[in-house]
Amino acid sequence: MPEALIAEHGSDSSARDAICAEVRELERAAAEEAKNKGQGFLGAERAVRTERGSKWELFGARNPTFAAGGDLEAALGAVDRLRGFRASYREVLAQWRNGDRHVTWPPGTWWMRVHHIASCATGPQPRAPD
Predict the structure, then answer these.
(1) Which end of the chain is more exposed for a tag (fewer CB within 10 A), N or C?
(2) Where are the alpha helices (DSSP H) in 1-130?
(3) CB-neighbour burial class of residue 2 (10 A; exposed 0-12, middle 13-18, buried 19+)
(4) Is the whole model's pTM more than 0.90, yes or no?
(5) Would you say 105 and 112 are in contact if contact means Cβ atoms under 8 Å apart?
């Protein structure tokens, strides 16, 4: 126990009690916030009683390209940037395969830069064509 907490609360056990009370208050506030947002809140006691999830999923069945945490705008932006990158990459790859070694690869093309000393652009990922 940090000496500052013992000095503030008078004893080790009083400091522990104060920490437990603060954690309970934070859990209560989080549960209330979740309830106001219409979300569920499991809480520590129910989490300990829960043995496992209710659904089984084959290990490795999911392999997401990116995660957006439920933010639709972020997910759509990521999809847009990925499509733009892939379109640019395909275009430059076709030129490269036709013998043009002076093409500039889109940002994020690490393999070509490192293994073929190819020129790569810097900056943000290209946007998908409309």
Answers:
(1) C
(2) 3-9, 12-36, 44-49, 72-97, 110-116
(3) exposed
(4) no
(5) yes
